[in-house]
Amino acid sequence: MAPRANWKGVLKIAEVSCPVALFTAASTSERIAFHTINRATGHRVHRQFVDGVTGRPVERDDQVKGYELAQGDYVVLTPEEVASATPASDKTISVAAFVPCADIDDVYFDRPYYLAPSDRAAQEPYALIRDGLRKTKTVAIGQAVLFRRVRILLIRAAGEGLVATTLNFDYEVRPAAAAFSDIPDMKIKDEMLELAGHIIRMKTGTFDPSTFEDRYEAALADLVKAKLEGRKIAARKPPKPTKVVDLMAALRESAAAMGAPRPSGRAAGKTRSGPDRAGKSAARTAASRRKAG
């Protein structure tokens, strides 16, 4: 059975219109889900809103939204007032610009959707837009009202179709400087970079999501199966404390396991200490003198 569209509307580029439908591309519905159960009765527990001061239950009709100005001081909004702020939807994705694919920082990516033609009449303009994006190596940036909010959409060609990814607004993305401010300015040794480069080259491949496993989901499935079969659940052993590892030694060991060539040139020279070179030079000089004598 064909999946149910999350949204239907029109993709509009200048005077070109294409009826389209959005389908969820990523979903958590297949994950194992738990309900909260009353241990004593075995009955399912339901959530209930209660007054924060009196502790009494508050019925749905008495629940309103409130914006906190100060502790305990709220601006109260009714459901009708909140609804009045919802933007009107004309069911149109209006494309504002085409930009190179590399121009969009993926920190702005939010949620992916498959964008497909919604009827036969849409197939030709749909193919035109898809092939045009692919040929020019660009993505379309549009805007639409989706699920009661104005959303920015990045639309790109993907195989036989289009993928539309909602983007975060600029105010929603935190500045990177705040996260990276404590990173010191360090100079990495040439040999370290050479060894790291070798490890990267040896492990270079292609991204295949099927090779990755959600170990937590698998463990939950095993846990449920064990309970059904009456098997005892063994407690997890605490992890062993992590040892402090010398970075250079770890790089050399990793590179050696992958068949790394010995560092050459200037980088190789840095691996020997000054006293060691001087000692060997003195030994060669003494040997020459003995032969001369």
UniProtKB/TrEMBL annotation:
<dbReference type="Pfam" id="PF02735">
    <property type="entry name" value="Ku"/>
</dbReference>
<dbReference type="InterPro" id="IPR009187">
    <property type="entry name" value="Prok_Ku"/>
</dbReference>
<comment type="function">
    <text>With LigD forms a non-homologous end joining (NHEJ) DNA repair enzyme, which repairs dsDNA breaks with reduced fidelity. Binds linear dsDNA with 5'- and 3'- overhangs but not closed circular dsDNA nor ssDNA. Recruits and stimulates the ligase activity of LigD.</text>
</comment>
<keyword id="KW-0227">DNA damage</keyword>
<dbReference type="GO" id="GO:0006310">
    <property type="term" value="P:DNA recombination"/>
</dbReference>
<dbReference type="InterPro" id="IPR016194">
    <property type="entry name" value="SPOC-like_C_dom_sf"/>
</dbReference>
<feature type="domain" description="Ku">
    <location>
        <begin position="55"/>
        <end position="185"/>
    </location>
</feature>
<protein>
    <recommendedName>
        <fullName>Non-homologous end joining protein Ku</fullName>
    </recommendedName>
</protein>
<feature type="region of interest" description="Disordered">
    <location>
        <begin position="255"/>
        <end position="293"/>
    </location>
</feature>
<keyword id="KW-0238">DNA-binding</keyword>
<dbReference type="GO" id="GO:0006303">
    <property type="term" value="P:double-strand break repair via nonhomologous end joining"/>
</dbReference>
<dbReference type="GO" id="GO:0003690">
    <property type="term" value="F:double-stranded DNA binding"/>
</dbReference>
<comment type="subunit">
    <text>Homodimer. Interacts with LigD.</text>
</comment>
<keyword id="KW-0233">DNA recombination</keyword>
<keyword id="KW-0234">DNA repair</keyword>
<dbReference type="InterPro" id="IPR006164">
    <property type="entry name" value="DNA_bd_Ku70/Ku80"/>
</dbReference>
<comment type="similarity">
    <text>Belongs to the prokaryotic Ku family.</text>
</comment>
